[in-house]
Protein: Diaminobutyrate--2-oxoglutarate transaminase
Amino acid sequence: MTTLTDLESEVRSYSRSWPTVFDRAVGSTMYDHDGKAYLDFFAGAGALNYGHNNAVLKNVLLDYLRDDRVVHSLDMFTTAREEFLRTFSSHILQPRDLDYKVVFPGPGGANAVEAALKLARKVTGRESVVNFTNAFHGMTLGALSVTGNAMKRGGAGIPLVHATPMPYDDYFDGDVPDFLYLERLLEDAGGGLNEPAAVIVESVQGEGGINTARAEWLRGLSALCKKHGILLILDDIQMGCGRTGGFFSFEEAGIVPDIVCLSKSISGYGLPMALTLVKPELDIWEPGEHNGTFRGFNPAFVTATEAIRTYWSDDALERSTVTKGLAIEARFNALVARYPEHHLVAKGRGLARGLEMPSGEIAGQVTAEAFERGLLVETSGPDDEVIKLLPALTITDSELDRGLSIIEKAVAAVLTRS
Structure:
């Protein structure tokens, strides 16, 4: 009999880590075709901040479709588009004193990054972009050029140019002052660094290993960009929409990036949607200069609007996310103390958390052990050495406790036999 692996490309990844066929999902639980339940600490790689099939969002989506409302509209104005734009402005931008115009660049995060890079080069007339070690910004060519992972970059098949990597916060374990290298190159006529159009950065590097930039580091980077007339692009695709606490991951630092990239959980329901937010003075596009067939997916506008109204009319979700994140931090710190000989490291902010293991092999064994015990959790980092937690922000305290207990047992099972 032909199997699914016979029919689908070898490029598959998650189905290798979790070798079952999933059928249903509700909240923080997925069920395979045999009915076995798995607690989900993956949440669609951060696309499901409000859980699977969130009932509030599902109801507005079904009502919208049942009434034969517009589904596909390119960039034509629709009532769904208008309601999203007005709600995003009134509930997200205005309370934070942020003045951005919204670009709908296409359905995914890489589209948001490509639009940001393209616009930064158009605005400045420069080609070069500064990125950071262990960054991840997407799998299209422009996004790959500012991504750090060698395996992903290697898939491009051509040279990835016009980008220069710089050390991310604490890359040298505190041995080198912040921005020493970048600042010297920017100010040295003999440094060989092409004048950058932009710097692109993540407040927390998810795929890079849950590396967290300090607020003061982000403020220093913002000031350095302003000093040299460089646009600051903040990639908030995985860490935005409340993942670290505030709606935007950069709120804690008090900075205002020139361009912000959002996707993943902006639709609230796992429907494809992406935004590139730009300061009004940067909005110099010609009509149709950047477009795409699926930049007007109205069902995503509908669920995004309801997600914002439901979860961002007050600070309850933000406070809950911070509290739950601290609970994970405490449990991970206890694991670090329990196994000092293995040099584990607890990392992260909010509900983006990581536990760095001695190697990618050991981290993979832990996540495989967790899967056997009914938990979906992935790895990240340059060598997949970090156990990466991205549970839904709506996860219950009991579900969080149960998942952490599974991780503790999986870590104990692997480290005691390694």
